[in-house]
TrEMBL record:
Name the UniProt record assigns to this protein: Membrane protein YkvI
Keywords: Membrane, Transmembrane, Transmembrane helix
Stored InterPro entries: YkvI-like
Highest taxon in the source lineage: Bacteria
Keyword ATP-binding in annotation: no
TM spans (from-to): 12-28, 34-62, 83-104, 116-137, 144-165, 185-208, 220-247, 267-290, 302-320, 326-344
């Protein structure tokens, strides 16, 4: 693999892999932010994808221009010192919340699917995240480069298999959200919230990559490929959940239930997919929280990692579905200003 292709693949894999977390792969997150709006949810997904590509390029470009080493520098650059400081603190807490969601998701997987202790699931992923993050950004990039293609392949197969044996037509787009507590009253706001919190999570890893990537073509192609991969996978998952609606939202992990109704091999493969998706997003959140903690204290990286992991384990006992609906929506509102500022800077750079 040539240097340019490898660099493009790393950016695309990190961008897509970070967003493909527990909520995404389970179908729960996409249900709450897109499926409940029916056909307009699909319009929202397309709108979100375009902005993912555009703003991903912007993040990488600005990061290289200012030689940023962490997302905090990008945040201050985009929002100013005063607002940036406030957002920085809130975003760090939000990243911690999403990390907690990933741990809770793995605990749910172990308890409800593998019939193993909830705490064992949390401990397994916590240890994996800890060991990988100790390797730094290169270790995280390598993990995403390996795992993301596998996630894409398995998710696509399970979704397309489901679509192949169901009779479906455009009536599936007429969704009634009465049975679900929707996050917002409008599909556009929901799409922007989804975009906003995922941009910040991605920025924790895209910023240091952007600083090390001087070639504009690599930054542009990597961001576009990562966004298109997300569009493909999210679109497939949304269509499958719509076909199984309104039963699908009743399960904490709708896609895992759907895979289990197909074949035991598909079920086993999707168990891996769900766990791996939580792992890739957890890496970005843990890296972001640790970077912030080491920046404001005299703690070593290892000590900061242990503190963040310990507290996330404790809070993960709140539960997966409750955390998805609460943490992700609040995270989206908090980071919306950052998204709007990035959009402004993409057209009117400093």
């Amino acid at each position: 693999m040539s240097y340019h292709v490898l660099k493009i693949a790393k950016i695309a894999a990190i961008y897509a892999g970070t967003i493909m977390g527990a909520g995404f792969a389970s179908g729960q997150e996409l249900t709450q932010f897109f499926v409940v709006y029916g056909s307009m949810g699909l319009v929202g997904l397309l709108f979100t994808t375009i902005l993912f590509a555009w703003l991903g390029i912007t993040i990488l470009k600005i990061s290289h221009t200012i030689k940023a080493t962490s997302y905090h520098q990008l945040l201050y650059y985009a929002c100013g010192k005063r607002i940036g400081t406030v957002l920085d603190c809130i975003i760090t807490l939000s990243l911690f919340g999403v990390l907690t969601v990933m741990l809770a998701g793995n605990g749910t997987l172990f308890r409800d699917t593998l019939h193993l202790p909830y705490g064992l699931g949390i401990g397994t992923i916590a240890l994996s995240l800890l060991l990988t993050t100790l390797w730094g950004i290169n270790g995280i990039a390598t993990a995403n480069l390996i795992i993301t293609p596998l996630l894409a392949a398995i998710t696509s197969f399970v979704a397309m298999y489901s679509l192949s044996y169901h009779d479906w037509n455009f009536t599936i787009l007429h969704i009634s959200s009465a049975a679900i507590n929707i996050s917002t009253s409008h599909w556009l706001l929901s799409s922007l919230l989804y975009l906003s919190y995922n941009l910040v999570m991605s920025a924790t890893l895209l910023v240091p990559l952007g600083a090390r990537t001087p070639e504009p073509s690599i930054r542009i192609i990597g961001s576009i490929i990562g966004s298109l991969l997300l569009l493909l996978l999210a679109g497939l998952i949304i269509l499958v959940v719509m076909i199984h609606y309104p039963l699908s939202p009743e399960y904490e992990i709708p896609m895992l239930h759907i895979a289990g109704s197909q074949h035991f091999v598909h079920h086993a493969a999707y168990i891996f997919t769900f766990a791996a998706a939580m792992y890739t997003t957890g890496l970005a959140c843990l890296y972001g929280c640790t970077t912030k903690l080491t920046a404001v204290t005299s703690l070593s990286k290892t000590a900061a990692l242990l503190i963040v992991i310990t507290f996330s384990v404790l809070f993960s006992y709140i539960g997966f579905t409750s955390l998805v609906s609460i943490v992700f929506t609040l995270f989206g509102y908090v980071t919306l200003w950052f998204t709007l500022r990035l959009l402004y800077l993409s057209f009117f750079p400093k």
